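Onboarding guide, step 5: your first structure request.
Type a short instruction followed by the sequence, for example:

Predict the 3D structure of this protein.
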Amino acid sequence: MAAFPDNFLWGAATAAWQVEGAHDEDGKGLSIWDVFSHQPGTTYQDTNGDVAVDHYHRFREDIALMAEMGLQSYRFSISWPRLLPAGRGEVNEAGVAFYSDLIDALLANNIEPMITLYHWDLPQALQDEGGWESRATATAFVEYARLCYARYGDRVKRWATFNETIVFIGHGYITGSHPPSVNNTARAIQACHHVFVAHALAVQAFRNTDIQGEIGFVNVLQPHTPLTQSAEDIAATELADAIHTHWFYDPILKGAYPEELLEQTQRLWGVPQCEPGDMALLRDNRCDFIGLNYYRRETVAANPGETSTQANHSGERQSAGEFGFKGLFKFVRNPQGVYTDWDWEIWPQGLTDGIMMIKARYGDIPIYITENGLGAKDPIVDGEVVDDPRIDYLRMHIDALENAIAMGADVRGYYPWSFIDLLSWLNGYKKQYGFVYVDHTQNLARKRKKSYYWYQNVIASHGEQR
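The system replies with structure tokens like these:
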């Protein structure tokens, strides 16, 4: 049997705020990231998405590079405030036209679009009304989703509702490093519930269209390994699994919260507060596939000490402390691990193990690897971007993906992060992920990296040459 199914898609991914720029052009409303990133000290070197890499004006150039590479699918997100500047109500037709032109250009180059409806850029107008803590935001999201289905559903067959809820809720409402910069666990849990409700409502609306396609949800895949085999470290790892994985997958794929954890959150904080019918809504509107974003595993230890949520945003190794919560768990450095400059462990086996973990818990749900990549400081040698570490990283993870498929996992596509060097939310432009380099000193000129040509061969050989 072939290692990769005949219909397996080789793609790449980006997100609107990180590439588009044009943050206030052609009627677009402000997003929470447009506002947040203009506050001093919130991002590395005070970078913002006003211009980003100017994909809004240069998307045809970028799609030509995708086509030359042989890309079969492109995962991108739509900017909600570009379509609905106030989050609901009046439609910005110029914004609708931008994505319509983007989709047409992709299809003209035989590149299948995969749309993510929400990749963190909530309209600021909705945040001013309460954001995800307000039930009304879920209702507004469905209005936005229906607009996208109506305008693009004739051409787009693959959809995802949300990207990485654990990140935009966790950092937005617990660590406070993302907008709306809240530090309150109870508010985080309630906001998260409204996201799940919004997802289920959007799936329900999708099923009421005549779109011949599929709709899913994109989650972080982060396996956890205990530092030692002590009872304390094993218990801490199980708790990390419950909080970081099961809480974010179970409502989407099972239609219910993890029972023991739900009992604890209800006892401690009285959340999530559910309206009648919420759990039936989740149960009856489970998605067609799950998107997995895999970058690393975490080694877990018991944490009798203090809570610390400092992260490495500079790319200077070990510049941040251990991440963890007092009395629960902490993420520690694996003494045998290999780490990036941003202290993310490189562990390809985790992709195989994580996929099989999802299969074991949730059954034969179709899977797309919607993100996987190396954030690095790429060297330029004699004018060439020589990103050999990225090639090595991706090669090892494609090997791991092949192993999961051989073990029976239904994996249907691979979308490395990212197609082009883009604005990292809190890391500026120092952290590079792309196959295409962007020269910020030369009018954002695009340049193919060494990995670009490598992935071109991977795609052309359907994964055999790597």
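Each response can be followed by summary notes, for example: The longest strand covers residues 214-221.
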